[in-house]
C-alpha cells in the first residue's frame, strides 16, 4: 500500500522537486504551499507522514504552528522538519513540539528517504508484536531496532531517529570511542562536528531527565564519545 | 595648552576690574577736589572783597610804599602768653624764624685778615607780640664769644645795636650788651626806652632775647650785630625793615570764614602775613609736631593701613597720576611766603592747589588776589587772600572707595577665579571622561567593549556625548550586521542550494540521461558539496556562539584535561611530535570542559596545518597567582606582522592555498570566542627565535592545589 506523504513547503521549485522525487519512490505525495491549506487537508484526512518547512511564506514560524496542530490531531503521525534554519533554538523548539526529526535542507534526498522509511517502519512496528532478535540490550539500556525505541531502566526514552542512530552507534560497541566523524556517518545526516556535540548534549539531557545519575555517555576529549557504564553501583544486576 | 590653563589666563582679565574702579575713584576724587577748590576760591574771593573794602576805609598796609624794603621786616606773631625773657628758645620753637647769612659790612680793625668762612655769621630772628610789647628772639653764631669788659673804657665785646629811624629819618640807636650771661645792659637813645633783654651763651654762639614796647615799633628799625674780639671788630647789619604786626581788624574779617579745618591768611604784596585765622591757632605746631603722633599712629595701625598704603602706592604707580598731583610738601604758611607761591597772585590770578602731605591728609589751598583802590582810583593788587583747608574728608572718601574697591575686587576676582577654575575643572573632567570613554569603546580588534552612556546635560559637551552615543549605536548596528552577515548569508543560500540539489537529484533519477550528462551532473554535485561546506562553515561561528551562550561553567582541572587531550592528539597524529609541559600544581579554573577541549582542538588543528612532518608542537602551561598562561607553540612559517591582530577575526585565513577543504578562518575565531567566554585573552606571535609561532592564552585561575 502506498503511503501518503504530505510536504508543506513554500518554495515552489523545491516543493515540486520533492514531490517528483518522492513520487518516483512510490509514495503518494500531497504538497501544500502554506499552513492553512495543509491544515485543512489534514483535517479531511491524516497523512501517513508529514514533512514541514518552518518558514511558510510570510509566516516565519508557520511550520511550528502546523506541527502543533497536527500533533494535537494525532500523536502517531511522524513529523519531519525540513528547514534551512539550523540554529540550536529552532532544532530544540521543533523537537519539543513533537517532531520526530529535524533535518536541514542540505540533507540529500537519499538520507531523507532513509528517515522517512525508518519512521514509517517504526509506526508499522509499533503495531506488531515485538521480535526479540531485533533488540539490543546493553547494561540497563534496551534498544528495539525495529521500532527504533529505547528504554533506560525500563523507562522509555523518547528519541528522534537521528538520536536513535547515535545511541545505537555508541552502544553497539560499549567502551569504544566513536569519533565525531564516525557518529556523523552513523546518524546518516549531514551534521558537522558542532552538531554532533549538541546532539550528544541533548541525548544526555533526555537520559538525565529519566535518571539523575545517568553518566553512560562519556566524552573522550580530543577523540569523541564512548558508551560506558561505571562498574560501581548495582547497575549491572 | 590645557583648557584649565587657558581659562586661568582669561581670569587675568578680571584685573581690569580694579583698574576701572580705580579710574572711577580717581575721577570722583578729582571732581570732589575741583569742587572744593572752587568753593575755597569763591570764599577767597569774598574775603578778598571784604578785606579790600575795609582797606579803602583808610586803613591800609602801612608800608604801601616802594621806598621801604619789604624783604626783611620782622614779623610779630601773635603769642598766647608773654615770652619768658630767659635767652632760651623754648617758646619760640613753634614759630618759623627768619634766617640770615651775613657778612661783615665794616671791618673796623683789620689787624688779622679773616677768611670768609670764619667771618660769615648766621642769624635767626623771630618775634612775637603779646599785649603791648614785642618780644624778639635773636640767635647768633659766634665762635669767638667776647663779653663786655668794663675795665676797658670804650664799648667793647660782642653787642647788638638796635637802630630806630623816626619819621624824620633820624637814627636812634640802642645798644644791648653784657659782661656775663644774663640780663643785658641797655644803653643809648632814651627815645626808645623800656627795652629789656637777656643774653645766653650757646654752643654755636649766643642767644639774645629782648622785649620792647609796641609804641617804639611804628618806625623802621635795623639790627646791627657786632662781633668783637680783642683784636678786631666785625659789624653785621641786618636789613632795614619794619615790624609787621598782625592786623587785628583784618583778622576779625577773616575769622568769620575760618574754622577749625580752614585757615585764612591775608598777605601783603611782599608776601608777609597780615592776618591769620583758623585752625593753626587751635592746633599750633600743626606741622612741626604732627610728625610724631602721625607716625606713631601709622605704626599702631594694623596691617590694613599698611596694605592700604601699599595698594595706594601700587595704584598710583601703575596708573597715570596726571590728575592726581601729590602736592610737594611745602612748609606752613608763616612769615613770608615764597615767591612762586605769591607771584601769580600778585599778577591778579586766582590759584587753586591741591596738596597732599600725608597719606590720609591733604590740604586744599585756594588763593585770590587782593585789590585795593589807590588814590587815583586804580585797582592795585596789593596782596592776596589764601585759604587752606584740610580736606581729609575727600581723601577719606576716595581712599575708602579705593580700599573698598580693592576689597570687593579681590572678592569678585576670587569668586570669578574660583568659579572659572571649578568650571574649567568640570569642563575638562567631562571632556577627559568623554575622551577616555570614547577611547575605550572600540578595542584594537574593532569591537565594542562598553556601551557609552548618554549624557543628560543639555550643553555642547552633552551634545557631543550624545553624538558619540548615536555614532556608537550606529556603528554597533553595522558591526552586528557585518557579524551576522555570514550567518544570514548562509541561511539565505541554503534555499537556492536546495533548489539546485533537488533538481539535480531529480535529473539523476530520470532515466533519459546518457553517460556524458551524468559526468556533468557529478561535477555539479561536487561543486554543490563544496558550496554546502562553505555555507555550513559560514554559519559555524553563529552556532558556536549559540552553544557558548548556552554553556555553563564549572570548576575544572586544567592540567589533567590537557594531558588527556594531548594523549589523544598524540595517538591521532603520529606524524607530528606533540609535547606537553605543565607545572606540578593542579590548576583549578572555572570553565566549560567541552568548550576548552574544542578550543584546544582548534589550536591543534591550526598548528598541525602549519607544521611539517616530524615538526614539534608543544603545549606548555605556566601559572602565577591569578592567571595561567597556556602556550601552544609550533615549528612553522612565521606570521605576517600585519596579520597578528586580525588573525582571530572571522573569515581571516593566512593559508596560502586552499587545501583539501575550504578554510574560512573560523578556527581561531572560535578559539577567541571560547577564550573570551572564559574571561581570558589570546594572542599570537612569532617565537623570539623566529623559528616558529606561538599562541598564548591567558585564563583566570580559581586556585592552585598541590598534587
What's the pLDDT, averaged over the residues of chain B?
Answer: 75
Rounded to the nearest angstrom, the distance between the terminal CA atoms of chain A is: 45 Å
CATH domain topology of the largest domain in chain A = Rossmann fold
> What oligomeric assembly is this protein in?
heterodimer
Structure report:
The complex is a heterodimer of chains A (237) and B (707). In chain A, strand 3, helix 3 and strand 4 form a beta-alpha-beta unit. Helix content of chain A is 42%, strand content 20%. A 5-stranded parallel β-sheet of chain A has the order 2-1-3-4-5, sandwiched between helices. Chain A has helices at residues 12-24, 35-44, 62-73, 88-96, 109-127, 161-171, 180-186, 193-210; strands spanning 4-8, 28-32, 49-52, 79-83, 101-104, 135-138, 141-144, 149-152, 155-157, 178-179, 217-220, 224-227. Chain B is an alpha+beta fold. Chain B has helices at residues 3-11, 16-56, 116-119, 248-255, 279-282, 291-300, 303-318, 339-346, 392-441, 460-509, 515-550, 558-572, 593-610, 667-677, and strands at residues 74-78, 98-102, 121-130, 133-141, 159-165, 171-177, 182-183, 185-188, 196-201, 205-213, 220-228, 233-237, 243-244, 262-268, 273-277, 351-356, 362-373, 379-390, 554-557, 577-581, 586-591, 616-623, 627-635, 681-686, 692-700, 703-705. Chain B is rod-shaped, with a radius of gyration of 59 Å.
Ordered list of secondary-structure elements with their pairings:
The complex is a heterodimer of chains A (237) and B (707).
Chain A: E1 4-8, H1 12-24, E2 28-32, H2 35-44, E3 49-52, H3 62-73, E4 79-83, H4 88-96, E5 101-104, H5 109-127, E6 135-138, E7 141-144, E8 149-152, E9 155-157, H6 161-171, E10 178-179, H7 180-186, H8 193-210, E11 217-220, E12 224-227
Chain B: H1 3-11, H2 16-56, E1 74-78, E2 98-102, H3 116-119, E3 121-130, E4 133-141, E5 159-165, E6 171-177, E7 182-183, E8 185-188, E9 196-201, E10 205-213, E11 220-228, E12 233-237, E13 243-244, H4 248-255, E14 262-268, E15 273-277, H5 279-282, H6 291-300, H7 303-318, H8 339-346, E16 351-356, E17 362-373, E18 379-390, H9 392-441, H10 460-509, H11 515-550, E19 554-557, H12 558-572, E20 577-581, E21 586-591, H13 593-610, E22 616-623, E23 627-635, H14 667-677, E24 681-686, E25 692-700, E26 703-705
Parallel strand pairs in B: 1-3, 1-13, 20-22
Antiparallel strand pairs in B: 2-3, 3-4, 4-10, 5-6, 5-11, 6-8, 7-9, 9-10, 11-12, 14-15, 14-18, 16-17, 17-18, 19-21, 21-26, 22-23, 23-25, 24-25
Helix pairs in contact in B: 1-9, 2-9, 9-10, 10-11, 11-14, 12-13, 13-14
Amino acid at each position: 500500500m502506498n503511503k501518503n506523504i504530505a510536504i508543506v513547503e513554500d518554495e515552489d521549485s523545491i516543493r515540486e522537486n520533492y514531490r517528483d522525487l518522492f513520487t518516483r519512490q512510490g509514495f503518494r505525495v500531497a504538497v501544500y504551499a502554506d499552513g492553512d491549506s495543509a491544515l485543512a487537508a489534514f483535517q479531511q484526512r491524516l497523512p501517513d507522514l508529514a514533512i514541514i518547512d518552518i518558514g511558510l511564506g510570510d509566516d516565519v514560524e508557520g511550520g511550528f504552528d502546523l506541527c502543533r496542530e497536527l500533533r494535537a490531531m494525532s500523536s502517531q503521525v511522524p513529523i519531519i522538519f525540513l528547514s534551512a534554519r539550523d540554529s540550536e533554538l529552532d532544532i530544540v523548539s521543533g523537537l519539543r513540539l513533537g517532531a520526530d526529526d529535524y533535518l536541514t535542507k542540505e540533507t540529500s534526498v537519499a538520507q531523507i528517504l532513509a528517515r522517512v522509511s525508518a519512521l514509517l517502519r517504526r509506526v508499522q512496528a509499533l503495531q506488531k508484536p515485538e521480535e526479540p532478535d531485533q533488540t539490543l540490550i546493553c547494561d540497563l539500556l534496551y534498544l528495539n531496532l525495529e521500532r527504533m525505541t529505547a528504554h533506560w531502566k525500563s523507562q522509555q526514552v523518547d528519541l528522534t531517529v537521528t538520536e536513535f542512530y547515535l545511541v545505537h552507534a555508541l552502544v553497539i560497541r560499549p567502551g569504544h570511542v566513536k569519533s565525531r566523524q564516525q557518529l556523523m556517518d552513523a546518524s546518516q545526516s549531514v551534521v558537522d562536528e558542532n552538531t554532533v556535540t549538541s546532539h550528544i548534549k541533548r541525548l544526555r539531557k533526555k537520559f538525565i531527565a529519566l535518571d539523575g545519575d545517568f553518566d553512560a555517555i562519556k566524552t573522550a576529549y580530543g577523540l569523541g564519545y564512548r558508551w560506558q557504564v561505571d562498574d560501581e553501583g548495582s547497575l549491572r544486576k | 595648552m590645557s583648557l584649565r590653563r587657558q581659562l586661568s589666563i582669561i581670569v587675568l582679565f578680571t584685573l581690569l576690574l580694579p583698574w576701572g574702579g580705580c579710574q572711577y575713584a580717581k575721577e570722583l576724587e578729582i571732581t570732589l577736589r575741583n569742587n572744593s577748590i572752587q568753593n575755597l576760591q569763591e570764599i577767597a574771593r569774598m574775603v578778598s572783597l571784604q578785606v579790600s573794602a575795609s582797606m579803602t576805609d583808610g586803613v591800609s598796609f602801612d608800608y604801601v610804599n616802594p621806598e621801604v624794603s619789604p624783604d626783611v621786616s620782622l614779623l610779630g606773631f601773635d603769642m598766647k602768653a608773654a615770652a619768658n625773657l630767659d635767652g632760651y628758645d623754648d617758646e619760640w620753637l613753634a614759630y618759623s624764624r627768619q634766617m640770615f647769612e651775613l657778612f661783615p659790612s665794616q671791618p673796623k680793625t683789620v689787624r688779622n685778615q679773616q677768611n670768609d668762612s670764619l667771618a660769615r655769621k648766621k642769624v635767626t630772628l623771630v618775634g612775637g607780640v603779646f599785649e603791648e610789647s614785642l618780644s624778639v628772639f635773636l640767635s647768633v653764631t659766634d665762635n669767638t664769644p667776647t663779653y663786655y669788659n668794663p675795665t676797658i673804657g670804650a664799648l667793647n665785646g660782642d653787642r647788638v645795636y638796635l637802630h630806630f629811624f623816626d619819621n624824620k629819618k633820624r637814627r636812634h640807636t640802642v645798644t644791648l650788651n653784657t659782661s656775663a650771661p644774663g640780663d643785658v645792659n641797655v644803653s643809648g637813645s632814651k627815645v626808645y626806652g623800656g627795652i629789656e633783654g637777656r643774653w645766653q651763651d650757646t654752643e654755636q654762639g649766643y642767644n639774645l632775647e629782648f622785649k620792647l614796647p609796641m609804641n617804639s615799633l611804628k618806625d623802621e628799625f635795623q639790627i646791627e650785630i657786632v662781633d668783637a674780639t680783642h683784636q678786631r671788630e666785625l659789624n653785621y647789619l641786618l636789613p632795614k625793615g619794619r615790624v609787621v604786626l598782625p592786623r587785628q581788624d583784618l583778622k576779625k574779617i577773616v575769622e568769620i570764614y575760618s574754622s577749625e579745618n580752614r585757615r585764612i591768611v591775608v598777605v601783603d604784596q611782599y608776601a608777609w602775613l597780615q592776618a591769620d585765622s583758623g585752625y593753626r591757632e587751635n592746633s599750633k605746631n600743626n606741622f612741626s609736631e604732627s610728625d610724631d603722633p602721625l607716625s606713631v599712629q601709622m605704626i599702631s595701625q594694623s596691617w590694613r593701613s599698611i596694605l592700604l598704603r601699599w595698594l595706594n602706592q601700587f595704584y598710583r604707580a601703575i596708573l597715570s597720576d596726571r590728575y592726581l598731583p601729590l602736592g610737594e610738601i611745602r612748609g606752613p604758611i608763616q612769615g613770608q611766603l615764597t615767591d612762586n607761591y605769591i607771584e601769580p597772585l600778585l599778577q591778579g590770578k586766582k590759584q587753586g592747589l591741591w596738596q597732599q602731605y600725608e597719606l590720609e591728609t591733604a590740604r586744599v589751598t585756594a588763593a585770590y588776589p587782593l585789590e585795593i583802590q589807590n588814590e587815583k582810583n586804580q585797582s592795585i593788587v596789593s596782596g592776596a587772600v589764601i585759604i587752606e583747608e584740610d580736606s581729609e574728608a575727600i581723601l577719606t572718601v576716595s581712599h575708602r572707595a579705593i580700599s573698598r574697591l580693592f576689597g570687593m575686587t579681590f572678592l569678585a576676582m576670587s569668586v570669578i577665579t574660583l568659579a572659572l577654575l571649578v568650571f574649567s575643572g568640570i569642563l575638562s573632567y567631562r571632556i577627559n571622561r568623554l575622551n577616555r570613554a570614547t577611547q575605550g569603546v572600540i578595542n584594537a580588534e574593532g569591537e565594542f567593549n562598553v556601551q557609552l552612556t548618554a549624557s543628560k546635560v543639555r550643553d555642547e559637551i552633552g551634545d557631543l556625548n550624545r553624538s558619540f552615543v548615536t555614532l556608537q549605536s550606529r556603528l554597533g548596528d553595522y558591526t552586528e550586521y557585518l557579524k551576522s552577515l555570514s550567518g544570514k548569508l548562509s541561511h539565505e543560500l541554503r534555499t537556492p542550494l536546495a533548489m539546485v540539489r533537488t533538481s539535480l537529484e531529480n535529473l539523476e533519477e530520470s532515466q533519459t540521461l546518457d553517460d556524458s550528462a551524468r559526468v556533468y551532473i557529478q561535477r555539479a554535485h561536487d561543486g554543490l558539496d563544496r558550496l554546502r561546506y562553505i555555507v555550513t562553515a559560514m554559519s559555524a561561528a553563529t552556532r558556536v556562539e549559540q552553544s557558548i551562550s548556552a554553556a555553563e561553567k564549572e570548576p575544572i582541572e586544567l592540567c589533567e584535561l590537557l594531558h588527556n587531550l594531548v594523549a589523544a592528539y598524540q595517538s591521532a597524529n603520529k606524524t607530528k611530535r606533540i609535547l606537553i609541559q605543565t607545572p606540578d600544581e593542579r590548576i583549578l579554573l572555572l570553565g566549560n570542559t567541552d568548550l576548552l577541549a574544542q578550543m584546544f582542538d582548534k589550536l591543534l588543528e591550526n598548528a598541525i596545518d602549519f607544521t611539517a612532518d616530524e615538526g614539534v608542537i608543544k603545549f606548555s602551561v605556566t601559572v602565577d597567582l591569578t592567571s595561567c598562561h597556556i602556550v601552544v607553540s609550533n615549528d612553522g612559517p612565521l606570521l605576517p606582522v600585519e596579520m597578528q591582530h586580525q588573525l582571530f577575526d572571522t573569515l581571516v585565513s593566512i593559508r596560502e592555498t586552499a587545501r583539501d577543504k575550504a578554510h574560512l578562518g573560523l578556527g581561531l575565531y572560535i578559539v577567541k570566542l571560547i577564550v573570551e567566554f572564559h574571561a581570558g585573552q589570546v594572542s599570537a606571535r612569532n617565537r623570539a627565535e623566529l623559528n616558529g609561532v606561538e599562541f598564548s592564552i591567558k585564563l583566570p585561575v580559581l586556585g592552585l592545589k598541590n598534587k
